[in-house]
Amino acid sequence: MSSSPAPMMLTSGALRSLVLLLQGLLLMLLLPFRWGYVLQGRRSVERSKDGKVVVRVPAAMVPQRIVRGEQDEALARRAMAIERVRETEGGDVRRGYSVFVTSRGEGLFTQSWAPVSGDIKGVVIILHGLNEHSGRYNSFARKLNANGLKVYGMDWTGHGGSDGLHGYVHSLEYAVNDVKVYVEKVVAENPDFPCFLFGHSTGGAIALKAALDPKMEALVNGIILSAPAIQVQTSHPIVGVLAPVFSFLVPKYQFGAACKTGLPVCRDPEALAAKYADPLVYTGPIRIRTGSEILRISSHLQQNLCRVNLPFLVLHGTADTVTDPEGSQKLYDEAASVDKSIKLYDGFLHDLLFEPEREDIARDIIDWLTTRYGSCLE
Q1: Is 362 within 8 Å of 334 (Cβ atoms)?
Q2: Tens digit of pLDDT for each residue in 4-33?
Q3: How far apart are CA 85 and CA 112, in angstroms?
Q4: CB–CB of 88/138 below 8 Å?
C-alpha cells in the first residue's frame, strides 16, 4: 500500500506534461488562419467637450485585463459610429442610421446612404469583412448613390457600432440569420426596387450562405462578392480538428503568437494606414471561436456551391494572401446560376475597394449592377 502513491504522482506529472505539450503545440500550429493578421495603428489624441484629453489606441495595444465591460466598450464604439454619420450629413447624399435589434436582443448598428436628387433605381446592402465595419465603405456607397442606388450597411455582431465583444463572433449563423431579417426589412421599406447584396471577405461568405435560402431568392436580385471567404487555409491540417474543441473551451481567447504582423491587404499605403488607425477596426489577435466559425462556414459553402442560383459577380485579386482566389473560381465553376460572372485582377490583394485601382473596380461593379437593375425595371 505504501508504494501505491508513486504511480499516481507519476501519472499526474505525465498528464501535466502532456497538457503543457499540447498547449505549446497549439500555439505553434494556430499560427493561424491566413486572415489572422495584425498591424499596429497609431495613437490619436482628441479633446472631449469638457476639455479632457482622450487618447485612443488600437485594440492590439490595449492589455485585455484593463478592458472594463464588453457592453460599455460596444456603446462607445456605437457613439463613434453615430458621430461619423452625423459629420457627413448634408450635400448631395442623405445619410442616416438606426439600431436593428435581433431576436437575441443584440443591437446591430445600421446606416444608409441615399441620393438627395434623382430617381432611385435599386438598393444595395453592404456586408463588411472581418474586423472592419460598414462605415469604411462610405466612398463606395456614394459612388453607388451617384448611379441611382440607395445603399444600406449593417455592422454584424461584435463589429463596428454593434453589440458584442470587439472582434468576437460566437456564431456566424447568427450573422447569416441577421442578414436575412435585415434584407426583409430593407425590401419592405423599398418594395418597388430591385435589391442586391454586396459582401466582402467574411461578409461575402455570410451573404453567400444567406443566398442559399430559397426565401432569399425571392427578395434578392443578385449578389456581388469581393474576395469572399469561400476557401481559407490554415497553417496545419490539425488546426481544423483542434479549432472547434478549443473554441468551445476558450472561445474568446486571443492568440497573440498567431498574428502575422504586416500582412498586406492592399497596395495603397495611405489606405492601409487609415484602416489600422481606425478605432472601429479590430486590430487584435483573432479570437479562437471567430476563427473556428470562419473555417466552419467556409467548409459549408464549398460543399454547397452547386446550390447557388442567384445571379452573381465575384471579384478576387490573384495575389490575395487572406482568402484564396481558387475559392472564387470554384464558385463560378460549380454554381447553378445561369447569370454568373467572375473578374480576377492580376496582382491585386485582398481589400479590392481600397486598392489603387479602386475606381476601375467600382466601375466594374456598377456596370454589372446597372445591367441587372435596368432589366428588373423593364
Answers
A1: no
A2: 333 333 345 544 554 545 555 555 454 444
A3: 9
A4: yes
